[in-house]
Amino acid sequence: MPLASPLDPTAMLRGAGLRVTATRVAVIEALEQLPHSGVETLVARVEADLPTTSRQAVHHVLGDLAGAGLVRRIEPAGHPGLYELRVGDNHHHLVCQRCGTVADVDCVTGHAPCLTPSETKGFDLAQAEVTFWGVCADCSTSPAGLAPATHA
Ligand SMILES: [Zn+2]
Ligand SMILES: [Zn+2]
């Protein structure tokens, strides 16, 4: 069920100087619907529209998009790389330690880097990438120890 998209993947690709291909467009659309997704999730989503797509092709596209600055890759400890379209705003992430749900949280000050370390060691700081770990609302209302799949 294709949602009316406020995004224009074709314009995004052209603006970044990338050739417009069906796979690239499909990956951008998949990311819009499923932010913070890993490669497996995105492959499954893209295959629904383009059954001939290979895992390799999606992987490749993600690399191209990330290289062009259209996609951001985050890698919370213990998770595979996750991809999102929200780039350049220095936002941070809340990660559930039980189910792995990832949520965006806006930058504290609205400009990068919004956090400064106690010492910069002479570095010219560009950004701060913060991962807040905790337990999400769903998990915190379910009995401890239950895997998220058994929430019901
Ligand atoms: Zn959770
Ligand atoms: Zn995010």
Structural summary, described in words:
- It is a single chain.
- Strand 3 and strand 4 form a beta hairpin.
- Helix content is 31%, strand content 12%.
- A three-stranded mixed β-sheet has the order 4-3-5, with no helix packed on it. A two-stranded antiparallel ribbon has the order 1-2.
- It has 152 residues and is of the alpha+beta class.
Order of strands across the biggest sheet? 4-3-5
Counted beta strands? 5
How large a portion of the residues is in β-strands, by DSSP E? 5-15%
Supply the helix-strand structural class. Answer: alpha+beta
Name the bound molecules. zinc ion
Counting H and I runs of at least 4 residues, what is the number of helices?
5
Q: How would you sum up the major sheet?
A: 3 strands, mixed
CATH T-level fold name of the largest domain:
Arc Repressor Mutant, subunit A
Structurally, how many domains make up the residues? 2
Distance between the termini: 25 Å
Q: Detail the poorly predicted runs.
A: none
Mean pLDDT: 89
What is the CATH first-level class name of the largest domain? Mainly Alpha
Order of helical and strand elements: HHHHEEEEEH
Rounded to an integer in angstroms, the radius of gyration calculated over CA atoms is: 17 Å
SSE diagram, text form:
Blueprint: H1 9-15, H2 22-33, H3 39-49, H4 55-67, E1 72-74, E2 82-84, E3 92-96, E4 102-105, E5 131-134, H5 137-140
Parallel strand pairs: 3-5
Antiparallel strand pairs: 1-2, 3-4
Helix pairs in contact: 2-3, 3-4
One zinc ion (ZN) binds at residues 36, 84, 86, 91, 93, 104.
Labels describing this entry:
152 residues; alpha+beta; Arc Repressor Mutant, subunit A; Dna Ligase, domain 1; 2 domains; three-stranded mixed β-sheet; two-stranded antiparallel ribbon; 5 strands; globular; binds zinc ion
